[in-house]
Structures are given as C-alpha cells and as structure tokens.
Amino acid sequence: MKSSLIKSAVIFLGLFFLYFPILVLIFYSFNENKRVMVWKGFSLRWYNELFNNEQIIEAFIISIKIAALSATFATILGVMIGYSLVRIRKIPFKSFYIFLSSTPLVLPELILGLSMLLFFISLNNVIGFPSSRGQLTIFISHVTFCIAFVAIIIQARLTDFNKNIEEAAMDLGYNYTKVLYKITLPIILPSIIAGWLLAFTISLDDLVVASFTTGPGANTLPIVVFSKVRLGLSPEVNALSAILMFALIIIGLFYFYFNKKFKH
Amino acid sequence: MKNKLFEKYFVFSPYFWLVLFFFIPLAIIFKISISVSEWGMPPYQDIFLFDNGFKINTTFENYVYIFSDYYYIGSFVNSLILALISTFFCLLIGFPLAFYIATSNIRLRNILLVLVVIPFWSSFLLRVYAWKIILQNNGILNVILLNLGITSEPLQLLYNQYAVIMGIVYTYLPLMILPLYGYLNKFDLNLIEASKDLGLNRIKTFFKVILPLSVPGIVAGSLLVFIPVVGEFIIPEMLGGSDRLYYGKILWEEFFVNRNWPGASALAFSGIIILVLPIVIFQILYSRWSQKNEI
Lengths: 264, 295
Prior knowledge:
- The complex is a heterodimer of chains A (264) and B (295).
- Chain A has helices at residues 2-28, 45-51, 54-87, 94-102, 109-127, 135-160, 163-171, 176-205, 208-213, 221-229, 235-261.
- Chain A is mostly helical and 264 residues long.
- Chain A has a single domain (54-261), classed as Orthogonal Bundle (MetI-like fold), CATH 1.10.3720.10.
- Chain B has 295 residues and is mostly helical.
- Chain B has a single domain (33-292), classed as Orthogonal Bundle (MetI-like fold).
- Helices cover 73% and strands 1% of the residues of chain B.
- Chain B contains 13 helices and two strands, in the order αββαααααααααααα.
- Chain B has a two-stranded antiparallel ribbon with strand order 1-2.
- In chain B, helix 1 packs antiparallel against helix 13 (261-292) and helix 2 (61-67) packs across helix 13 (261-292).
- At the A-B interface, helix 1, helix 3, helix 4, helix 5 and helix 6 of A face helix 1, helix 3, helix 4, helix 5 and helix 7 of B.
C-alpha cells in the first residue's frame, strides 16, 4: 500500500517536471501583452503576428526543406550501415567502420560543427568548392550526424528479426537482391520510417552545427529563434513554440507507432 | 558474384560519406591545431612548406597556450564539473522514475515510456527557452515562492550556474531514463521478492540486488548525458550568467570572436581527447546493449 503510493507519487512528479515547462510556454503564448510575463488577457494576437512574420516563415521553409532532404539521405546511408553491420561479414577495418558510424552520436555538436566548417573552408581552398556556405553545407553536415541515429535503429531491428525467414526465401529460389527487396526491407520498413522521422526531427532542431555551417540565405528556424531569445523573451516565439511543440510531439507519436510495430 | 558487388555497394557508400565528411574534418581540426597561427585569411600557416626545399611547419604552441592559461583550463574544469553534477541529478531523478516505470504492468509501462520520451521530441531550444520564462524575476516560480511566503522579494533565479544545471537536467533527463529502463525492463521482479523472502530489508535489497544489476544501464545513461553536456553551448548561453565560463562558450568565442582558428582547433581536439575514453566505453557498452535490446 505504502510502496504503491510512493510509486504513483514518483511517476506523477516526474511527469509533472517533464510537462510543466511545456505547458507554461503554451499558456503564455495566448497572452495579449507584448511584455511576455505580464498577463493581460487571452488572445491569438501573437499567432497572427507569427504568420505574418516573413523572416520566421522563410526560415521555417528552409528548415523543413533541409530536414526532409537530409533525413532521406541519412536514412538511405543509415540503412546501409545497419544492414552491413548485422548481415555482411567482411567489412574492411570493421572497428573503424563502427567508430565512424557511432561517434557522431555522442560527440559534442560544437566540435562537429567546427570540424565541418573548417573542412568546407579547406575544401574550398583546394578545389574551389563550396565557394560559399549555405543550405548545401548544412544539408551535408546534417546527413553526417543523422546517419548514426538511423543506423542504430536499423541495426537493432535487424539483430532482432529472424534470419531464417531470409534463408527460407533463399532456399525457395530468391536471389540475394530479391530477398533484400521482397523480404528484408518490407519487414524493417516501420523501423526505416521511424529512423527517417528521428533524423528529420534532429535536423529540424539543430542549432549548433547549422550555426557553424550556415551562410548567406540559409538562416534555419533554430538560428532565427535563437537570435530572438538569446537575450530576452519574444511573444512571437511563444506562439511558434506552442505550434512547433505540438507538431513535433505528433511526429514523436508516429515514431513510437512505427518503432513499436515490429516488436510483436 | 553479384552478391559481392551488392555487398560492396552497401558497405562502401556510407563508408565513403563518413570518411569524407566526418573523419577528414576531424583530421583537419588536428592539422589546424598544430599549425602556426598568423594574421591573415586563413589565419594559420600551411604545415608543409615547399619554398626552400620541403619543410614541415608544425607547432604545439597552441596546446601549450591553452594548457598554460587558467582561462581555458578553468573553463574545461567548469564544464566537467557541470557535466558531473548534471549527470548526478539526472540519475537521481531518472533512476526511480525508470525503476517504477519498468515495474508497472505492461500496458501502463508502454504509455508511461512514451509520455517520458515525448518531451524529448519537442524542440530542444524551446524547452530551454521555457525555463527562461519560468525562472524570470516575475516568472511563475517566483510568484509561487512569494505567495507561499518563502521569500519576500523575487529571487534572481536566472543567469547563474543553478539555472544552467536546471536546464540541463530537464533537457537531458530522457537520455538517462531510456537506457536505464532498457536494463531494468529485463530485470526479473522475482529477484526482489526472493531477496525479501531471504530476509533483506528494502534498503539492503536496493543496494545488494537492484543497484548491482542496473550498473550497465547507469553507465550507459550517465555517458549519454555526460559527454554531450561537456560541450553544451546553448543552455549556458540562454540560462547562464557571467559567473562561470564553460568549454563550449570559450571554444565558440575563440573561433568567432578572437578568430584564432588554431587555438579553437586545439581546444576542440583537446576536447575530443578528453572525451575519447568515455566515448570508447560508451561504444563497447552500447554495441553490447543494442545487441541484446531493441531501443
């Protein structure tokens, strides 16, 4: 009796801690007042201003574009890594391969961003490309550090599922590629979608690496938001937060749906 | 025959990408960190000179410069301490939460797990920004404290190291809970009953049975929090004050403000070296864990 009370209390407090800040943010987004902290009355004013703010809208479109493209590339490459690590025996310098595919997962973003920027500058000195930084360089950087996240999901999924199904198909006369496209990929499809969603969100959310690798005409949403709230509060950002949190949480639920599907 | 070609394609496409866009950039950081700095663009000299015969032009002065100046070492130490404290609090909050979720019935368990991880999906930057609103002088926390009569005037809660720790614990908590849950989930609950039957009390059961069995989860979760926090830039920038300088900020300023590329690279590379050991531990544990587990 006593222990179940403690249990409920811990879980309740934990969830309260996790959700309270988000609720506060959403609450203040409906504040009429320009001074964020002084409540004046319920209003949708800042949502209206947000949708008329060209700078934010433009940054939003750029971010979505980069996120969708880099998630797609990262998913393709991540699936290849996950597949290689589980199903292919001969990988030259395998521990180096593992190092490359998992270190971006934990390396501080700041170091990653700096290395990408210095790389692009050096590359430009050597071959004259990329002559300026912008959406392309952000895209390349995002692909690079999203690959690891996709690879881990795919690796876990492939380790989990029964190899016999593949072998049975092979016995029934399917060749290697046909097994991959008809059996393996369809089975891990939910995990591939989950990986894409994760990569998309990570790219959409990234501020540090994008700040290093950005250039003229490539201000992503986090860069614009950060410049607005670094020193103070912004009622428009409050409205944006509420919308974005809602959208991202929906994406998160989809992720769980797809990532869970394979377990049964 | 065809299989071989196909396998090569699968292994080498990502291999090529990661060597080009991840490994070479790291090598470039190292290269610039041992270059001689100079005024100009780029602000360092080449490490290979060919004018009067071949000459290698490298220096360790950038490292000496960093490690002899308290400004840099101090910020490193501050970051490591910050990461330690934050990891400790994440563990303190995350462990009971993960434990109770793992011991719930299966339906509730899945719902709770999703509920815990969902905030992690919403924007990192905006979750930090939320704390800026909460901790304002006229923010919600101060209003509560004033109304409860705990203080008579608003406290300065923002722009200090405590606000930074708060923000980090909040944003990184799910990273601690997930691996902990992964291990605790596989935990046989009968062991707790068994240890009670054998006469161990609650506290002894915790220290003799539960804790030892969850060590791998604790290590994995702690590293997932500790390593990125050492390099954390956004949270100290948004919630921190001038009372403490951290590694991330110093690195940022060395590069963007002081335009000292070799110095910034030396800082970055030192950071990698200092974090390499925990990263290697992480990789070994993670590959073991993900083989047993689906995340």
